[in-house]
Fold this sequence. Notes:
It is a single chain. This protein is mostly helical. The protein has helices at 10-13, 18-27, 30-43, 62-86, 90-100, 105-124. The protein is globular and about 45 Å long. The two termini are 30 Å apart. It comes from Cymbomonas tetramitiformis.
Amino acid sequence: xxxxxxxxxxxxxxxxxxxxxxxxxxxxxxxxxxxxxxxxxxxxxxxxxxxxxxxxxxxxxxxxxxxxxxxxxxxxxxxxxxxxxxxxxxxxxxxxxxxxxxxxxxxxxxxxxxxxxxxxxxxxx
Length: 125
Protein backbone atom coordinates (compact mmCIF):
# COMPACT_ATOMS: atom_id res chain seq x y z
CA UNK A 1 0.00 0.00 0.00
CA UNK A 2 3.01 2.25 -0.19
CA UNK A 3 2.13 5.35 -2.18
CA UNK A 4 4.38 7.81 -3.93
CA UNK A 5 3.78 11.11 -2.09
CA UNK A 6 3.66 13.04 -5.36
CA UNK A 7 0.85 10.81 -6.62
CA UNK A 8 -1.38 11.48 -3.62
CA UNK A 9 -4.09 14.14 -3.78
CA UNK A 10 -2.98 17.36 -2.09
CA UNK A 11 -5.66 17.01 0.61
CA UNK A 12 -4.18 13.66 1.67
CA UNK A 13 -0.54 14.61 1.14
CA UNK A 14 -0.97 17.43 3.67
CA UNK A 15 -1.85 15.09 6.55
CA UNK A 16 1.17 14.99 8.85
CA UNK A 17 0.49 11.77 10.75
CA UNK A 18 1.64 8.80 8.67
CA UNK A 19 -1.01 6.37 9.95
CA UNK A 20 -3.87 8.82 9.40
CA UNK A 21 -2.50 9.59 5.92
CA UNK A 22 -2.28 5.86 5.13
CA UNK A 23 -5.81 5.39 6.43
CA UNK A 24 -7.04 8.11 4.06
CA UNK A 25 -5.19 6.43 1.20
CA UNK A 26 -6.79 3.12 2.17
CA UNK A 27 -10.28 4.65 2.18
CA UNK A 28 -9.53 6.19 -1.22
CA UNK A 29 -8.15 2.92 -2.64
CA UNK A 30 -9.68 0.85 -5.42
CA UNK A 31 -10.00 -2.08 -3.01
CA UNK A 32 -12.05 -0.13 -0.47
CA UNK A 33 -14.21 1.81 -2.93
CA UNK A 34 -14.88 -1.33 -4.98
CA UNK A 35 -16.12 -3.18 -1.89
CA UNK A 36 -18.50 -0.32 -1.06
CA UNK A 37 -19.64 0.02 -4.66
CA UNK A 38 -20.36 -3.71 -4.89
CA UNK A 39 -22.38 -3.58 -1.68
CA UNK A 40 -24.37 -0.58 -2.93
CA UNK A 41 -25.05 -2.13 -6.34
CA UNK A 42 -26.19 -5.39 -4.74
CA UNK A 43 -28.55 -3.62 -2.35
CA UNK A 44 -29.72 -0.37 -3.95
CA UNK A 45 -32.96 -1.90 -5.25
CA UNK A 46 -33.99 -2.45 -1.61
CA UNK A 47 -34.48 1.30 -1.27
CA UNK A 48 -36.46 2.00 -4.44
CA UNK A 49 -39.81 3.51 -3.58
CA UNK A 50 -38.87 4.41 -0.01
CA UNK A 51 -39.42 7.84 1.46
CA UNK A 52 -35.83 8.17 2.66
CA UNK A 53 -35.27 11.59 4.19
CA UNK A 54 -38.94 12.56 4.23
CA UNK A 55 -40.86 13.27 7.40
CA UNK A 56 -43.30 10.37 6.97
CA UNK A 57 -40.40 7.90 7.19
CA UNK A 58 -40.47 7.53 10.97
CA UNK A 59 -39.21 3.93 11.20
CA UNK A 60 -36.94 1.78 9.11
CA UNK A 61 -38.04 -1.66 8.02
CA UNK A 62 -36.40 -4.75 9.46
CA UNK A 63 -34.86 -5.34 6.03
CA UNK A 64 -33.25 -1.88 6.07
CA UNK A 65 -31.99 -2.41 9.62
CA UNK A 66 -30.41 -5.71 8.63
CA UNK A 67 -28.88 -4.10 5.57
CA UNK A 68 -27.44 -1.34 7.73
CA UNK A 69 -25.91 -3.98 10.00
CA UNK A 70 -24.31 -5.71 6.99
CA UNK A 71 -22.96 -2.34 5.80
CA UNK A 72 -21.37 -1.73 9.19
CA UNK A 73 -19.87 -5.22 9.13
CA UNK A 74 -18.35 -4.45 5.72
CA UNK A 75 -16.79 -1.25 7.09
CA UNK A 76 -15.48 -3.09 10.14
CA UNK A 77 -13.93 -5.77 7.93
CA UNK A 78 -12.23 -3.10 5.84
CA UNK A 79 -10.92 -1.28 8.93
CA UNK A 80 -9.64 -4.57 10.32
CA UNK A 81 -7.90 -5.21 7.01
CA UNK A 82 -6.14 -1.83 7.22
CA UNK A 83 -5.06 -2.43 10.80
CA UNK A 84 -3.70 -5.85 9.90
CA UNK A 85 -1.81 -4.49 6.87
CA UNK A 86 -0.22 -1.78 8.98
CA UNK A 87 0.32 -3.98 12.04
CA UNK A 88 -1.41 -1.47 14.29
CA UNK A 89 -3.95 -2.03 17.06
CA UNK A 90 -7.35 -0.29 16.92
CA UNK A 91 -6.49 1.67 20.08
CA UNK A 92 -3.36 3.05 18.41
CA UNK A 93 -5.39 4.12 15.35
CA UNK A 94 -7.86 5.92 17.65
CA UNK A 95 -5.02 7.67 19.46
CA UNK A 96 -3.31 8.77 16.25
CA UNK A 97 -6.59 10.05 14.86
CA UNK A 98 -7.34 11.96 18.04
CA UNK A 99 -3.93 13.63 17.87
CA UNK A 100 -4.31 14.48 14.17
CA UNK A 101 -7.63 16.31 14.50
CA UNK A 102 -5.98 19.69 15.05
CA UNK A 103 -3.45 19.30 12.24
CA UNK A 104 -5.57 20.31 9.27
CA UNK A 105 -9.18 20.65 8.16
CA UNK A 106 -9.21 17.63 5.83
CA UNK A 107 -7.79 15.35 8.52
CA UNK A 108 -10.34 16.68 11.03
CA UNK A 109 -13.27 16.07 8.64
CA UNK A 110 -11.99 12.63 7.70
CA UNK A 111 -11.59 11.69 11.35
CA UNK A 112 -15.11 12.92 12.20
CA UNK A 113 -16.46 10.59 9.52
CA UNK A 114 -14.31 7.74 10.82
CA UNK A 115 -15.47 8.36 14.40
CA UNK A 116 -19.09 8.16 13.26
CA UNK A 117 -18.38 4.77 11.68
CA UNK A 118 -16.67 3.47 14.82
CA UNK A 119 -19.50 4.76 17.03
CA UNK A 120 -22.01 2.97 14.80
CA UNK A 121 -19.97 -0.23 14.97
CA UNK A 122 -19.79 0.01 18.75
CA UNK A 123 -23.52 0.67 19.13
CA UNK A 124 -24.46 -2.32 16.97
CA UNK A 125 -22.22 -4.81 18.81
